[in-house]
Amino acid sequence: MSRQLLPIASRAETTRLAAAMLRAHRGPLLISAVAFVVVGLAGLVAPWILGDIVDTVTTGGDSSRILHGALLIAAASVVAGVGTAVSVTYLAKSGEPALADLREQALDRALHLDSIRLEEAGAGDLLSRMGDDVRSVAQSLTQIVPLLIQSLVAVVFTAGGLFALDWRLGLAGLGAAPFYVLGLRWYLPRSAPFYKRERIAQGERAEALVNGVQGASTLRALSREQAQIDRITDHSHHAMTIALDVFSLLTRFGARTNRSELIGLSFVLGTGFLLVREDLTTVGAVTAAALYFHRLFNPIGALLTIFDDIQSAGASLARLAGVALLQPPPTPEGPSPVRSGTFELVGIRHEYVEGHPVLADVTLRVADGERVALVGATGAGKSTLGAIAAGLLTPTSGTVRVGGFTLDTLDPSHVRSGIALITQDVHVFSGTVRENVDLARPGADDEQIRSALGTVRALSWVDALPDGLDSVVGDHGHPLTPAQAQQLALARVLLHDPRVAVFDEATAEAGSSGARELEDAAIAVTHGRTSVVVAHRLTQARSADRVVVMHEGRIVEEGTHDELVAAGGRYADLWAAWSS
Amino acid sequence: MPVVIGVIIDRAVATGDLGELAIWGGVLVGVFVVLSYSYRFGSRLGVGALELETHLLRVEVSEHVLGPDGARTGLLPGETLSLATSDAETIGQFLWHVGYSLAGLLGVAVSAIVLLRIDVTIGVVVLLGVPLVLLLIQVVTPLIARHTSDQQAGIAKATGIATDLVKGLRPLKGVGAEDVATSRYRTHSTSARDASIRTAQSVGYLFGLTAALSGLFLALVACLAGTRALDGTISIGELIAIVGLTQFLAEPITGLGETSARVASSFASARRVVDFLRTPPLATFGETVLDEPWPELEIKQMTAGPLRDLDLAPRRGELIGIVVDDTAGSDTLVRLLRGELPPGDRQGSLTLGGYEVDDLTIDSLRSRVVVSQHHVDLFEGTLRSVIDPDGALDGDAIDEILAASAASDVVDLHPDGLQQPITAGGATFSGGQRQRIALARALATRAPILVLAEPTSAVDAMTEQRIADGIRALRHAGDSDLVTIVVTSSPAILAGADRIHLVQDGRVVVSGTHHDLAQHDAYRQAVLR
């Protein structure tokens, strides 16, 4: 099944965004850059002095010169030490806040995304970006990036030092470069597909694991747990095999790197041999050159091997940037113009698959404060109409108006403040009861929260919790039943206080035994506002001001409960089945 | 290698002897070849062991949480995932560090021996100096270990919050709380950021300290060696070898210096995994294997959670309806029948075929009693593979099951019918459709005793009636031995039940058929709507 995943930023967009985020923290970045340069320069001192000591010894110089040199090396070490500490710390002081900005912006954009769009992409896609990708970038920021910069600086300065020592020795060292390039050209095309496969395998492994853990109780009930364990084992084994292949390739690449090192060192020593024989340079200079070149091994090796880490961190960054670069939600201009709760759905037609209308020309007008129940058999289009009414889904054609304003002319935040949607998807946010409820109105005081909880009949059990409003509920806290979770959702609606409330089977998850209590709570919430209730529990229809019966995407009956029962049509059949 | 470089410079570069250059050049090549190959095969072995260990840990974690007796871990799925991935990897890294440290120590030891042979004083200085430097570095490593675990915890917390918010996106958007949610995430993201900066700071101290100390050490050795070369105690080549070796020593020193921090983080991960693996099982089971294919289930004098002295004994072939007035009561009953209510949390007896369920093997219970809970979990595959994962049913049997669960509607709606793909969680289906697929899956097990919790809470009344008739026809036609227990308050289903128990305040207050009970006030209140 092809999925429309969330966008991934191009390399240029990612770079631009990263640069913009870093620019906001450029002070520490500048300090860090200066410190890196100082460290690079300080690193040159030791081999230089060591060469000088060799020359002092061969020419029979003074021992004070050696002591002098040693003191210089010591001073350079202290400078390098301080510089290293400063560079790493300040790099983090600019990089970490930039990353934090990025992930916050990404989450913000993602939460403002059209929820239908997000569900199409799969929440898993977003979750892996907010989880794995954030972790991957964070890790590379603390481990890879400093190493990368240190190595780059070391390579550039050491090579510079080599040339400063003697340009011929420098050229000899540079002679190794083509061999390194050859090694890379052998490696990169071979490794890229491996890494891609490895990432896919890891993704599959994660999915198998998470699905297994989430559905553990169902798997056990059906005695299917072993099948899922086998599945996870297979995926994990597959990922391991690829990882080993990748590593084996890496060691072969390592051998090629070693070869280049040998060639370079031989060039330097051979050239030094000739130069000293011709008396063009000193033994000390050759010593320093050989030590310089030897010092290059580690940073070059590091640069070559972290290439992959950089690439994978870059891929993670691009995935994060893809979300962060989504359209920002427009800032509302002034307060909502919606003054009344009249609610109209006119000529609504909707097709999920072209040519298969789920809704065909539905028109529904709801007066301010009226309570309308939408009923009908499964597949009649009730939920689709509910989603359209709530502004979550844009119909193929037709208009939705609240208080006389068409939804697409209203600011999205005004749509949200005007129309609330309560679905059967209950979710308890991990946090306190208070945090669960005041999401809809941050800063609501105890009195407001308690009054909302009271209206939805939740106050008695909330007060019975060990810490009342401040009891932690959800995954890590006190477990709530689906009915209690939905009561919290209803309390949120009260605090949100919209003109229009759309309920989509909001009482279904509670199970029959909890449903009645929830229905009472839901009715209390609809008090004083326009409401559209998608219901299969016909008690909800009976208490509504008007019942609208849908069948195969159309409205087929409309009227009060009593009128429709008396009319003996489709609703009367439903009611008979329900109340038998 | 620094020794060979020193020898080349001493014997060849300084003297201009081509023969020496050829010989020692050859030795240099030899050293490279040996180093390269031993790294290649040594590290492959090491990484092989590491990856295998990581894989085995991962499997162990998933077996623990998914095992037949389950685990009371109290963790979010994302947290379990991070145990099975990043923590398992960190533990695996331990092997790498051990190998790496051994190699580092060996490098130091060999260098010291070479140096001792060249010059005893310098050799002793190195032998004493390296441990001293390592000791000094240990001052910062505990700091790193602590900050790193803070950082990991901070990032995990922020990720957990983000996951939670994304999972609750619908309710969140329903009341326009996106901005509030973002600001909550920001709080956690900021503290993760601060923890990361503190970690980087301590890493910076470590790197800085290592760089400074190994540099100072090099200065000391260079001073000693230079002076001794000047009085002719050692040759130029030996001088170069000494400084070369000392410079080389910076590498194992850095590696060894970090080792303790890395090992500490491996241990922290290991502790998390061990704690996880020690979480108690959800269910207790015994050794007795039940032979009886159609055992009778009996609950006697059961007191657990809100349930008080509950008795329940379905007879063969019966369709039992249970009406429970509060959700906590029905949850407890369902958990009890799943065998997931710890013996400490209940009093009374639960027997199957005359044996206490606690004494039976897991399989004995699960192959006889299948409990389909109210919350629906769907797994990836096709509709067919979800309903009948073993492919044990023929076309007619599948059709019967689809008809009985009214899942035939779901099949008919999609051009691919039974072959339509299902994503994990079944997000493309409505609540009612998911419920019917789960019901079909439960019916397909053909369990001798099937327990259904609220199987029709999200379907309309007409469909509910079809399901009630369907279950009756599929499982209770003629002299069937199958037992079905439905926890529900749906009149359509209850009307078809052989016996109904009304549970109020945890006790069975009245039993009978739907018809018998229709006059009972409490029953009417609970069921008729």
TrEMBL record, chain A:
<keyword id="KW-0067">ATP-binding</keyword>
<dbReference type="GO" id="GO:0015421">
    <property type="term" value="F:ABC-type oligopeptide transporter activity"/>
</dbReference>
<keyword id="KW-1133">Transmembrane helix</keyword>
<dbReference type="GO" id="GO:0005524">
    <property type="term" value="F:ATP binding"/>
</dbReference>
<dbReference type="InterPro" id="IPR011527">
    <property type="entry name" value="ABC1_TM_dom"/>
</dbReference>
<keyword id="KW-0812">Transmembrane</keyword>
<dbReference type="InterPro" id="IPR027417">
    <property type="entry name" value="P-loop_NTPase"/>
</dbReference>
<feature type="domain" description="ABC transporter">
    <location>
        <begin position="343"/>
        <end position="577"/>
    </location>
</feature>
<feature type="transmembrane region" description="Helical">
    <location>
        <begin position="144"/>
        <end position="163"/>
    </location>
</feature>
<feature type="transmembrane region" description="Helical">
    <location>
        <begin position="29"/>
        <end position="50"/>
    </location>
</feature>
<dbReference type="Pfam" id="PF00005">
    <property type="entry name" value="ABC_tran"/>
</dbReference>
<feature type="domain" description="ABC transmembrane type-1">
    <location>
        <begin position="30"/>
        <end position="312"/>
    </location>
</feature>
<protein>
    <submittedName>
        <fullName>ABC transporter ATP-binding protein</fullName>
    </submittedName>
</protein>
<dbReference type="InterPro" id="IPR003593">
    <property type="entry name" value="AAA+_ATPase"/>
</dbReference>
<keyword id="KW-0472">Membrane</keyword>
<dbReference type="InterPro" id="IPR039421">
    <property type="entry name" value="Type_1_exporter"/>
</dbReference>
<dbReference type="Pfam" id="PF00664">
    <property type="entry name" value="ABC_membrane"/>
</dbReference>
<dbReference type="GO" id="GO:0016887">
    <property type="term" value="F:ATP hydrolysis activity"/>
</dbReference>
<dbReference type="InterPro" id="IPR003439">
    <property type="entry name" value="ABC_transporter-like_ATP-bd"/>
</dbReference>
<keyword id="KW-0813">Transport</keyword>
<keyword id="KW-0997">Cell inner membrane</keyword>
<feature type="transmembrane region" description="Helical">
    <location>
        <begin position="70"/>
        <end position="92"/>
    </location>
</feature>
<dbReference type="InterPro" id="IPR036640">
    <property type="entry name" value="ABC1_TM_sf"/>
</dbReference>
<keyword id="KW-1003">Cell membrane</keyword>
<dbReference type="GO" id="GO:0005886">
    <property type="term" value="C:plasma membrane"/>
</dbReference>
<keyword id="KW-0547">Nucleotide-binding</keyword>
